Amino acid sequence: MLKKTSLTLILLLTYAITAVAQGDQCTLKLAELPAAPELRGFYVGMTIEQVKARLPKLQLKPADEFGFASVNIFPDYETGIDKNTLAGVRTVTLDFLDGRVFSVWIGYNQSFKWQTIDEFVSGIMGALKLPNAWRTKFRNRLLDCSDFTVGVIPVGQSPSLKLTDSVAKATLGQRQAAKEEPEPQ
Question: Angle at the Cα of 75 (from 69 to 77), degrees rounded to 5?
Answer without folding.
Answer: 100
